[in-house]
């Protein structure tokens, strides 16, 4: 009890769609059995590895989203920024091809 209020992790039965832009809320709703959701791996990894969630419809992955680097000017780019851009390109290309650095 907290100030006369009982706190519970149980979600109430809902008969309408849950709409939210918060991946943590969607993950917890799926764990509570409220339906299925499509979320990034970093949000559901612990729940999947712990057995709280199981992947379904694995063959229906969304198309990858582009990643862009925005910088103010091409006239002068610090060496550390160039090094970061090159590392990011190498890293994400290796991930796309199924390997890791």
Structure description:
The protein has 101 residues and is mostly helical. It has helices at residues 23-31, 41-49, 79-96. The radius of gyration is 20 Å and the shape is elongated. The N and C termini lie far apart (49 Å).
Short description:
The chain has three helices and no strands. The chain has helices at 23-31, 41-49, 79-96.
Strand composition percent:
under 5%
Sheet having the most strands: none
Number of helices: 3
* Cα shape: elongated
**Separation, N- and C-terminal Cα atoms:** 49 Å
Helix content estimate = 25-40%
> Would you tell me the overall average pLDDT?
84
Element-level helix/strand string: HHH
Radius of gyration: 20 Å
Oligomer: single chain
**What is the number of strand segments?**
0
Poorly predicted runs are none
Structural class: mainly alpha
Secondary-structure blueprint:
Layout: H1 23-31, H2 41-49, H3 79-96
Which features characterize this protein?
single chain; 101 residues
């Amino acid at each position: 009890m907290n100030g006369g209020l009982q706190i519970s992790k149980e979600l109430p039965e809902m008969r309408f769609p849950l709409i939210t832009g918060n991946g943590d809320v969607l993950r917890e709703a799926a764990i509570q059995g409220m339906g299925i959701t499509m979320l990034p791996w970093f949000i559901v990894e612990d729940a999947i590895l712990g057995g709280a969630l199981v992947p379904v419809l694995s063959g229906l992955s969304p198309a990858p989203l582009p990643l862009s680097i925005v910088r103010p000017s091409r006239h002068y780019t610090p060496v550390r920024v160039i090094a970061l851009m090159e590392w990011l390109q190498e890293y994400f290309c290796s991930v796309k091809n199924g390997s890791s650095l």
